[in-house]
Structures are given as structure tokens and as C-alpha cells.
What does this fold into?
Amino acid sequence: DSGVTQTPKHLITATGQRVTLRCSPRSGDLSVYWYQQSLDQGLQFLIQYYNGEERAKGNILERFSAQQFPDLHSELNLSSLELGDSALYFCASSVEPTGPQYFGPGTRLTVL
Amino acid sequence: GIQVEQSPPDLILQEGANSTLRCNFSDSVNNLQWFHQNPWGQLINLFYIPSGTKQNGRLSATTVATERYSLLYISSSQTTDSGVYFCAVCFGDDKIIFGKGTRLHILP
It folds into this structure.
């Protein structure tokens, strides 16, 4: 157990809908990262927050947004969902912005 | 952009064998990490190794940043070592790229 928690574990929804994925970092970690893992794209870095502020942005679509709250938990919002958004979404955390990352168990999103 | 290549893509070994996995990257990086994704999908941090050599039990890793590669060594393989091994590099404005991974099968 890495100490990073993600909810829900599984999510099934329809095209066009909006969902919110939640992540709680390890105690003491200030940085949160979001990743998408799919069969065709592999593991893709989406976005990083550090102590509430956006720090780095990867291949995150405009339909996706994220934020980190004062208690350091983070949410990833996915809107206007498409079939191709079906994937495993991982959250990771680290103490420092470029330090070792520890991954949560992931949320499996299925868009029908 | 920066390229990260892992080799071999697949590896099948008998229990007890040793293996070397390689990660090449095309430009300077801020740091490099190795992860193991087990058959249940969990990603486990193995090494944070921007340069030098580290060891943890049967696993060790070496990164030669000036030559832009990293190696992960697994000795005396066990069936629980099966899964996919990823290297991930952090570069530029702290963007992160994962390699496509090496899928390792350890046969009993």
C-alpha cells in the first residue's frame, strides 16, 4: 500500500457525460500528479500540482481539468466524455516537485 | 520532444535467471525513475535514480546521465517479478515521459 488513495475504483458512464476522480496523497506529500494509461497510448502524464498550484502540464485535453485543494487532495474532472477516454487514471504523489513518486491504485473509467 | 526507449519489449525467463533492462533517453533529464506494474495493475516505485547506482535486495539500477541511459538489473528472478517495468524521465519544465515498458514473464 503506497498510502495514496483514489476513488472510485471503477466508473462506468456514457458518452457526453462528466465525471470527477478523486485522489488523496500520502501524508506529508505536497505534490500530486495525474496520469492516463490506455492500451494504445501507454502511460501519459496529464498534469502536476504542488501545494495547490499547477506546476507542470502534459498531454491534458481541454475537456479535462484538475485542481488541488487546501487539504492537498486533488480532483480530476473529465467532461464531454468520448469512447476513447476509457482508460485507467492514476494519481501519484511526492514530497518535492521532482521527487520520487508513489502511485495510487487507479480508477478504471469505462465510457459506453 | 524527448524520446524514451526501453528494451527489450518482452522478456521470458526461467525462475532464478538474471536480467538487464535498458532505458535510453534522447536528451538531458532532471531525474529518472523505474517502476514495476504488477499483474494487478499496481505501479510500484523501484528506484529514483537521476545518476549513479542504487541497490535494493535483488534489484539494482544504474543511470549514466552523460550517456543518456539507465539499466535495471534483476537477479535470481522470482515469479512475483513478472509484470511490466517502466522507466520515466522528468525533463524541461518538469514534464514527465514514460517509456513503453518491458514486459517480463518469469516461468516457474
Observations:
- The interface with chain B takes residues 2, 33, 42-45, 48, 55-58, 88, 90, 92, 97-103, 105-106 of chain A (CB under 8 Å).
- The first strand of chain A starts at residue 5 and ends at 7.
- Chain A has a mean pLDDT of 96.
- DSSP finds no helices and eleven strands in chain A.
